[in-house]
Amino acid sequence: MSAAIAILIIGIGTYLERLSFIGIIGNRDLPEWAMMPLRYVAPAVFAALVAPAVLLVDGDLAVLPATNPRALALVLALLVAWRTKSVAATIAVGMGALWLLQAVF
Amino acid sequence: MRINRGFVDGARGVSPLLIGVIPFGLVFGVIAADSVIGPALAWSTSFIIFGGAAQLATIQLFDEGVVTVVVIATALVIGSRHVMYSAALVPYFQHFPRWSRFALPYVLTDQAFAVSIVRFQDVDDPVEQRWYFTGSAMTLWISWQLSTLIGVLVGAQLPEALSLEFAIPLVFAALLVLAVRTRPELVAALVGGAVAVIAAPAPLGLGLVIGALTGVAAGVVAHRVTE
Asked: Is A13 close to B72, i.e. CB distance below 8 A?
């Protein structure tokens, strides 16, 4: 399957997710047991995207600055994200820290 | 045609959030410029998918060479939070004209939802509600198209040595922190991240899906325990 077709499928699928209840209409409430797990999708998926991408080097766990400066840069970025709630500040500090650590090690 | 006051209010209401959206769009564009699927196709996700996190994950996974089915599944799992927004908007959207009930969900985003749902509690007129949503959502849509496009054009000029691909996990790290407000959400994140690392050797890039689903399950368990 080509990337273009995959992107089109994602686009249609995302639209249907947005339409879902509005499209079905009728003032039916989604039951709590179906709604509650959706709350945990964002934290779980974002963590699952970040952790392996940053902490694994050639398939092995690496957290020391000498072997993987990205791990420490990520920790600093997470602290900034937590303090500022700003995506822009998180990127700025994370990239700055990585460049600094790459220059040192 | 006179522009409805609700539209202007919506645009104004969402404008503080653009401080977060526009830099994200620029970064996405810079990353898209370097993608294996090509800058044009990567940028087209801005209007075909129109969801930053899903777009970024799509590009990251294509660049990692993950099987297409997993790319699609991951992007749709990330988008599944929209189902929650959709359900929450039904009481208001059911008074909107039929065409707008099908057109407006295309521009439903985290930010448009956040400002609109707050506003809808103070405004009873469905016409003004519809214009408020349209004004906030379209302001975001235009900002996103332009900022990602500018990012693509600038990104093509930047040198490789800057390690800009590291900006992808940084964006997700920031979104992660924003998404974690309660203890069960923290449990979902910690378990999701740890299992994704352990399951990383799984074939077809399925480690991500295994990690995410285990994280959601852990969040649900933690939710039940804390209640």
From this structure: yes
